[in-house]
Amino acid sequence: MKSSEKINHLYWRAGFGLSPEEWSKKKDWSVKRAIDSLFKEAAQAKTLNGEKEFLLSISKKDGKPSKEQIKKMMKESRQLIIKQNAQWVGRMADDKHSALLERMSLFWHGHFACVNKTSNLAYKQLKTIRKHALGNFREFVHAMCKDVSMIRFLNNQQNRKRKPNENFARELMELFTIGQGNYSEKDIKEAARAFTGWSSDKKGNFEFKERNHDEGSKTFMGKSGLFNGDDIVNIILDQPETANFITRKIYRYFVNEKVDENRINELSRAFYKSDYDIRQLMLSIFKSDWFYESKNVGTKIKSPVELIAGIMRSLHVSFEKPKNVLFIEKALGQILFIPPNVAGWAGGKNWIDNSTLMLRLNLTYYLYGKSDVNFKVKDELEAKKRGQTFRKIEGKLNFKPLLAAFDNQSNTATFEAMKSYLLLPPILLKVSDFDSYVYKTNSSDYIKSLAMRLMSLPEYQLC
């Protein structure tokens, strides 16, 4: 495998592809240099912008607002979530931000899946995810168990002594840590008792309500004591099965959906021994020779957000309104901050169906031509409410970086260079196969039309 192919593979799995400027600069780098750069940028990444704006929306909730004020605040909150969504996709697409941190944050956003109903809680949760995305998973779980969005989404507000609610405890084990088959129904009941009183105040801060906590002895995974929620988390993470479950999920997301059991066992043992060092686990994966084997390259279907961010990165797309990003996400079936359920997005082949395929294949043309697009949203209730909706995607494309990266060479050389840049799976098509689909009036038109055509191929859907 060529060095440039390895770099392209790495940046699509550890980020969202390369901008034309990055490709020109980094395609001949060694894998080690690229990995060092990715992790250095993640370590130096700045905190989120817009904190004052989002915290301002919280201050409006002080006191006892009227029904009209509540209605207005909820509308403003929804608009802020749409803006947060667009800003996050913008960071994924911007080569001035850490691609690795945003990619890891997107993974954990799907792992700790939670519907965020207010902007301030969505903002707080994303800050928590970014803080721990490459940190220690043990500390990460503790933090997420105190995340107010998660507490409310999984009904731990209603978890009180004498009437425990098991939803939070069940999902903590089944989806977030150890996985099915490694705990009993009794463990769920005892864990629920330990999490009684873990709640939140009206301002959206975590609050331990001692009067609602069951202080009695619990027996959980073979251990007995006056356990609270933190004790339960530590006992779960003391089990090697937890390291195996998390490693398997990371492997399926970053490497291949078809797992290699020997690799999983090797990686999970090291992950467990490190006391859940996420950074070390990711380094082990990206530095390994097997990560770059052909069977692991171009085998993953891009999620809608990955596809959108990758197109934006390559063509320097900007959107006039945050809602334009939301429209595309909704049509393709992945809306940030609104996963379909607590299990998150299923991924893989589930991303492709009759309602999404044509939009995915033609998305770059829609962006370039600003033509009307038939948005058949995946949400059935939304579809019934809105009916068949046609919208314009108001995006602006900046081709200058692409032209600078691939100009001043023959059409054949341009074709081979752009094919290597835009497509990970090898294609058998030759430059002559595109003669009827590209403009040859000048070099600029050829590069633009060739990029559109290559990005409309099924192979572009893979990374």
Write the topology of this structure.
Blueprint: H1 3-13, H2 20-26, H3 31-43, H4 51-59, H5 67-93, H6 99-111, H7 119-132, H8 137-145, H9 148-153, H10 167-176, H11 185-194, E1 198-200, E2 206-208, E3 218-220, E4 223-225, H12 229-237, H13 240-254, H14 261-273, H15 278-287, H16 304-315, E5 318-319, H17 322-332, H18 357-369, E6 372-375, H19 380-386, E7 389-392, E8 395-396, H20 400-406, H21 411-422, H22 443-455
Antiparallel strand pairs: 1-2, 3-4, 5-8, 6-7
Helix pairs in contact: 2-20, 3-15, 5-7, 5-16, 5-17, 7-8, 8-12, 10-11, 13-14, 14-15, 21-22
Description:
- By secondary structure, the protein is mainly α.
- It has a domain at 136-238.
- The protein contains 22 helices and 8 strands.
- The protein starts with a helix and ends in an 8-residue tail after the last helix.
Widest beta sheet: strand line-up: 1-2
Tell me the strand percentage band.
5-15%
Number of DSSP E strands: 8
- Rg from Cα: 24 Å
What structural category characterises the helix and strand content?
mainly alpha
Mean pLDDT: 92
- Discrete helix count: 22
Oligomer: single chain
Distance between the termini: 15 Å
Q: What is the helix/strand order?
A: HHHHHHHHHHHEEEEHHHHHEHHEHEEHHH
Largest sheet: 2 strands, antiparallel
In helices, the fraction of residues equals 40-55%
Unreliable runs: 55-61, 379-388
Envelope shape: globular
